[in-house]
Amino acid sequence: MLAIDTALRPFGTLMPAMVTPFTADGAVDYKQAAALANKLVDDGCDGILVTGTTGETSTLTDEENLGMFQAVLEAVGGRARVIAGTGTNDTRHSISLSQRAAALGVHGLLIVTPYYNKPSQAGIQAHFEAIADSTELPVMLYDIPGRAGVPIETETIIKLAGHPRITALKDAKADFTATSRVLANTDLDVYSGDDGLTLPLMAAGAVGLVSVSAHVAPQQFRALIDAAAAGDFATARKIHFALDPVIRATMGHVQGAVAVKQILKWQGILSNSVVRLPLVEPGEAEIAMIKADLAEAGMDL
């Protein structure tokens, strides 16, 4: 069993942004979700992010989101942190979903920048603070301007870090200079939100990773994070380079959930690779590229 210092790291250090398995006819498969969560924790993950971007949260109903939180809590809640993705582009909706998730017993919340609306920085700050005020749970900000349409500016992050329950940042901005300023000027636990930037961000003081590719190679990512945390950057570099083709396979050709589900099917971990529209399964050309990257990593599937 993994031992987590919840006072020091309330979100853990290696969190897969877990896919949401579906049945062949497109219903949420809670049994497969529980089995996948157990395998990920067995393989070294000390946190599970449920229904984030890779969990296809935007195509799930509230009841399906809550069902996923419950299924993963029951499966691994006693030995890993279960983090609920409850952010939407509607503050009131996000508050409601966050409160319902808190009532189930999740350990923390991941809140994405409100997307599509393109609010001002004042609106973004008010959105996060309103959600953080609505429960007693720790909150991880999720800065991903490529999907949200707007960034959380560095100055806004620094202001938000003053909220007692905003304790972490998932950084998917790919702006090392901006993230360095956050690390230098806040006490936030910063997590790489880009698998390929885990090593440089941890070298600057980040504490871990919220990952897509960790579905495919969790033990290697565990070793990378542990080596970087111990200051063993020679070992961390070797693992970083070895993981490069894995990251390309999962992130370089199709949307992350699409690639991961396909690979987990090849690995025999999921029974199918079903995704919900508007996502579609990879075509032959995309499959060939994914398999070529995996073969480069020594994973012939």
Automatic annotation (TrEMBL):
GO molecular function, one term: 4-hydroxy-tetrahydrodipicolinate synthase activity
InterPro entries the record matches: Aldolase_TIM, DapA, DapA-like, Schiff_base-form_aldolases_AS
Subcellular location: Cytoplasm
The EC number(s) this enzyme carries: 4.3.3.7
Pathway terms, separated by semicolons: Amino-acid biosynthesis; L-lysine biosynthesis via DAP pathway; (S)-tetrahydrodipicolinate from L-aspartate: step 3/4
Major localisation: cytoplasm
UniProt-annotated site: Part of a proton relay during catalysis, residues: T53, Y116
Active-site residues annotated for this sequence: Y142 (proton donor/acceptor), K170 (schiff-base intermediate with substrate)
Keyword Nucleotide-binding: no
Classification via SUPFAM superfamilies: Aldolase
EC class of the enzyme, as a word: lyase
UniProt keyword Amino-acid biosynthesis, yes or no: yes
Binding site for pyruvate: T54, V210
Key words of the record: Amino-acid biosynthesis, Cytoplasm, Diaminopimelate biosynthesis, Lyase, Lysine biosynthesis, Schiff base
Reactions accelerated catalytically: L-aspartate 4-semialdehyde + pyruvate = (2S,4S)-4-hydroxy-2,3,4,5-tetrahydrodipicolinate + H2O + H(+)
A Pfam family that the UniProt record links to this protein: DHDPS
Function: Catalyzes the condensation of (S)-aspartate-beta-semialdehyde [(S)-ASA] and pyruvate to 4-hydroxy-tetrahydrodipicolinate (HTPA).
Similarity comment text for this entry: Belongs to the DapA family.
Family annotation (PANTHER family): 4-HYDROXY-2-OXOGLUTARATE ALDOLASE, MITOCHONDRIAL (PTHR12128:SF66), DIHYDRODIPICOLINATE SYNTHASE (PTHR12128)
Subunit text: Homotetramer; dimer of dimers.
This protein's name: 4-hydroxy-tetrahydrodipicolinate synthase
